[in-house]
């Protein structure tokens, strides 16, 4: 699931909840769709932060669901809908943003990472290609050569490397959610 709360300063906070790594199960995807719609429709909300509970942003598609039929909202239109929100949306990346988790973050307008976070597209290690927009959004963001390296090796990179490559906008040693909230407040209302 995903919970919704409105913080002072008109920021909606969406928190992914699916232990142990907040993977994108059908319930989490439905929760994201519902809470993003809620933030979009709430006139008091001027910006949005997406984070994961217990200091983990998202480990990607829920591999526990791979064996069964796909239920719930698909990832691709869900991420498109986030990208299309006309209020700033930031991903607060703590712990991991892997596979579909990084693809979700790439659909957000900004990414703020904790210094100890790990990011990557490890799908190749499962015999897959990133299937939720990572093969398009990552090369647009950091260029084809660097994106191909990450997609074809599946390696995890540090927040510092992600900052250097241009995948994240800020890295912090303190609370990444607080930092992301402060960041979106500062850009709310800008075109
Ligand atoms: C996350 C880790 C780095 C953590 O490592 P650590 O050492 O700390 O701990 P463990 O490895 O022991 O893991 C702890 C615990 O967590 C479980 N777990 C980890 N990852 C997941 C996960 N992704 N899902 C579920 N559970 C997970 C793990 O099993 C342990 O559980 P336990 O009970 O044993 O304690 C490390 O775990 C790690 O590296 N994990 C793997 C991360 C990963 O590989 N992620 C990528 C997943 S694949 C993916 O995300 C694919 C995406 O690109 C989305 C694809 C979308 C598909 C869209 C399909 C469109 C099809 C369109 C078709 C159209 C057809 C038409 O209509 O034409």
Automatic annotation (TrEMBL):
Transmembrane segments: none annotated. Keywords: Isomerase, Lyase, Multifunctional enzyme. It catalyses: (3E)-hexenoyl-CoA = (2E)-hexenoyl-CoA; (3E)-decenoyl-CoA = (2E)-decenoyl-CoA; (3S)-hydroxyhexadecanedioyl-CoA + NAD(+) = 3-oxohexadecanedioyl-CoA + NADH + H(+); a (3Z)-enoyl-CoA = a 4-saturated (2E)-enoyl-CoA. GO terms for biological process: fatty acid beta-oxidation. It comes from the Eukaryota. One of its GO terms (cellular component) is peroxisome. The keyword Lyase applies. Signal peptide: none annotated. Pfam families: ECH_1. In the C-terminal section; belongs to the 3-hydroxyacyl-CoA dehydrogenase family. This is Peroxisomal bifunctional enzyme. The lineage of its organism: Eukaryota, Metazoa, Chordata, Craniata, Vertebrata. The gene is ehhadh.
């Amino acid at each position: 699931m995903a919970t919704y709360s409105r913080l002072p300063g008109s920021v909606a906070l969406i928190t992914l909840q699916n232990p142990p790594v907040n993977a994108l199960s059908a319930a989490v995807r439905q929760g994201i769709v519902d809470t993003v719609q809620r933030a979009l429709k709430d006139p008091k909300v001027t910006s949005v932060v997406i984070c994961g509970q217990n200091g983990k942003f998202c480990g990607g598609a829920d591999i526990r669901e791979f064996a069964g039929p796909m239920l719930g909202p698909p990832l691709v239109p869900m991420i498109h809908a986030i990208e299309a929100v006309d209020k700033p949306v930031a991903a607060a990346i703590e712990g991991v943003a892997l596979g579909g988790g990084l693809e979700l973050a790439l659909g957000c307008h900004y990414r703020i990472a904790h210094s100890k976070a790990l990011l990557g597209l490890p799908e190749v290690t499962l015999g897959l290609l990133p299937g939720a927009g990572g093969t398009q959004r990552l090369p647009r963001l950091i260029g084809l050569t660097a994106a191909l390296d990450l997609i074809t090796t599946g390696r995890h990179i540090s927040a510092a490397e992600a900052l250097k490559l241009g995948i994240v906008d800020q890295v912090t040693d303190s609370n990444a959610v607080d930092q992301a909230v402060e960041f979106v407040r500062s850009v709310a209302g800008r075109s």
